[in-house]
Amino acid sequence: MPEIEPKERYLKDLEGLHLWHAPMSSCSQRVRIVLAETGKDYTSHLIDLAGDEHASPEYQAIHPKGLVPAFVDDGRLFIESVDIIQRIAQPGSDLANSTSQDLLQLADKAQVDLKLLTFEFLFKGVERSSKESFDAFQENHQNEWLKQFRRDYKAGFETSRIDAAVTRTDEAFRILDDRLSDGRPFLAGDTFSLADVAWMPNVHRFSLMDWPFERVPNLQSWFRRVAGRPSYKKALLDWQNEKVAGAFAEYTGERRINGTDIRAFGSLSG
């Protein structure tokens, strides 16, 4: 859905670029990377996901699915990260022209598995939600898929579901690795593009889970390359809560010792 009609009339009166986002949301990271790459100024509206601000009536009046990011460009509202980054890059730019639509679609499709594996292998070690906050989320949020996801997470994801998500992620990374096997520096060719932007947050996120990137050496080299860009630090690392990242690392280490880390599931376990 490239553009939606705002429910809140004041959004139509906003001038310039406005971004509703969360610091460690991978989709928010995509948008901030493109904003950094293009040097565009924007008004930041932070959404506290840990505090379930995305379940508030105020935010759901902006984004009907209660997700981040949401983006307003001179009164026009966009809510899907792939559409947003294409909007910011603008047709005709090197960033947009040199991209690959199939890689953007693959990155978009990967978000469901990224979310599940993030909750299982990272958030599980730091999140301590109360019964009250869980009940409030179920009552206030209007996104039925997201509410069911929270219920599944609270009950514990089935092993088969984790296995499938790991295997699909492994397959996607192998596709990217194969694309890079001809020596190209970036995913779509010789020029840094939106395809690289779309995948940078995902590879970063899985590195926090200690994904075995030695299985995909071309992708590993690619990530070292793109992680050296100023936009990676400005749009991703500078927004990362290092205390939380440290807790992720500790939890990942504990699961590795216990043999229950991400390498013990799906196609990584063979």
UniProtKB/TrEMBL annotation:
<dbReference type="InterPro" id="IPR010987">
    <property type="entry name" value="Glutathione-S-Trfase_C-like"/>
</dbReference>
<dbReference type="InterPro" id="IPR004045">
    <property type="entry name" value="Glutathione_S-Trfase_N"/>
</dbReference>
<dbReference type="Pfam" id="PF13417">
    <property type="entry name" value="GST_N_3"/>
</dbReference>
<keyword id="KW-0808">Transferase</keyword>
<dbReference type="Pfam" id="PF13410">
    <property type="entry name" value="GST_C_2"/>
</dbReference>
<protein>
    <submittedName>
        <fullName>Tetrachloro-P-hydroquinone reductive dehalogenase</fullName>
        <ecNumber>2.5.1.-</ecNumber>
    </submittedName>
</protein>
<dbReference type="GO" id="GO:0016740">
    <property type="term" value="F:transferase activity"/>
</dbReference>
<feature type="domain" description="GST C-terminal">
    <location>
        <begin position="105"/>
        <end position="247"/>
    </location>
</feature>
<dbReference type="InterPro" id="IPR036282">
    <property type="entry name" value="Glutathione-S-Trfase_C_sf"/>
</dbReference>
<dbReference type="InterPro" id="IPR040079">
    <property type="entry name" value="Glutathione_S-Trfase"/>
</dbReference>
<dbReference type="InterPro" id="IPR036249">
    <property type="entry name" value="Thioredoxin-like_sf"/>
</dbReference>
<feature type="domain" description="GST N-terminal">
    <location>
        <begin position="15"/>
        <end position="96"/>
    </location>
</feature>
